[in-house]
Design a protein that fits this description.
The chain is mainly α. The protein has a domain at 38-102. It contains four helices and no strands. The protein has helices at residues 29-32, 43-54, 66-75, 82-92. The chain is elongated. The protein starts with 28 loop residues before the first helix and ends in an 18-residue tail after the last helix.
């Protein structure tokens, strides 16, 4: 039996990743057996929490507290300026009310 010009390559066995002591591997809530944070029909709280995380009012794994709710409400207490309404109308092809210049342009008509 003749051998080729090159030696037979050695196959290294892969080792599994080791998890540091005290850390738990990242798993879905379902696989970990944890309850879901929101019910299936609780879209309002779920979307509000996502918006609050995006606006950096809360951290990724924080709950919604009263201070975060107050900061969130403060962001939306004033109506949008007319220039912003006109820009949104142009982007989404909305029609604006005729009395927009009166400062009452809080309602857009689609």
């Amino acid at each position: 039996m003749s051998r080729g010009l090159l030696p037979v390559p050695a196959i290294n066995k892969r080792r599994g990743k080791t998890v540091p002591i005290g850390d738990t591997p990242r798993r879905s809530r379902r696989l970990a057996g944890a309850k879901s944070e929101f019910g299936l029909n609780d879209l309002e709280r779920r979307s509000k929490k996502k918006a609050m995380r995006t606006l950096e009012l809360i951290e990724e794994h924080e709950g919604i507290d009263q201070q975060a709710l107050d900061e969130y409400a403060k962001l939306f207490e004033q109506p949008l300026p007319d220039a912003h309404l006109q820009a949104l109308a142009a982007l989404f092809h909305w029609s604006l009310p005729e009395n927009l210049d009166d400062g009452e342009g809080a309602v857009l008509l689609s």
